[in-house]
Amino acid sequence: MLYKALPQQTVSYLRQVLGEDAVRMVPSQIATQLPYFIQDAYDVLPCTLLGHPLTFACAKGRLPMTAQQISQHTQQIGELFQTPVIVALSEIAPGERKQLIQHGVAFVVPGRQLFAPSVGMILSERYGTEPQRAAQVASPATQALLIWFLNQHPVSDTWHPFEAASALGYAGMTATRAVRELLQFDLFALEERGRAKYLKLTDSRRVIWEKAKPYLRSPVMKTLWTYDRSILDVDDARFAGESALAQSGMLNDPQQPVIAITSEAAQQARREGIFFEPRELADAVAVQVWRYIPNMLAKEKIVDPLSLWLSLKDNRDDRIQMALDDIEGKFLW
Known about the structure:
The chain is an alpha+beta fold.
């Protein structure tokens, strides 16, 4: 039967698309320490993928398991082998794929798809003749376009991103690359109308956000500090960080105001005589230099909520984490 060849098919597939030396098996008897029901459900293959320790759990046939059960199984396997785990499946339905992604399960379907954001890889045959390796994170333009789309709450289920790209200051070539990434990340489907390309929603906006999170990073490129309060009046500057949370009524005002500007605005401020320090200064203004424009919501005096969430997601302050939960809960998905 097909499932008996799944381990070989998985290794062959990855060697085909990533190179002959991409996968190297690591002999081990540790799998015998796994619970019997996991040994019965999977062929467990410890290996290295592009030099990184990894374990494949190759499902033995079409087992009636939920995504939650598979997630629990991979967690047990990962804890034993102390490596990331990728589940290999002989086939997968769209609904099953969605559930696995929502539960954070990395998976591979030989010849068709690899979803493993934790190791920085997504391979897919859906949008092109040859599988291609994805970027570990979205480019700034791709992230900006996606954030813009989610913030605009359009009624239509299709979206022409080139119009948004122009509004955000990106050229057509940049928009084309962004569309390619959004498709590669499996966030939208492609719909062509003549020569025009549209992106079509295949999930709710909230699900798209959750699926996109592994590829998104903080928009903050670096933070500078200045005593010069005229920086607060820079065109297109927006309150960011804890100041944005305070402006939204979620926290008290921080001791240091926090604003976000573009790198071009920071360079212009320097030319106009504003002096920045690369280290934190007491009672100074914290100036975040963003990878894309912070004034996406032109009528607001704070940065958009999803970019704010991304800029603070790694902050361990419980107050801030509660505020971030509030942002997601109240966002108009």
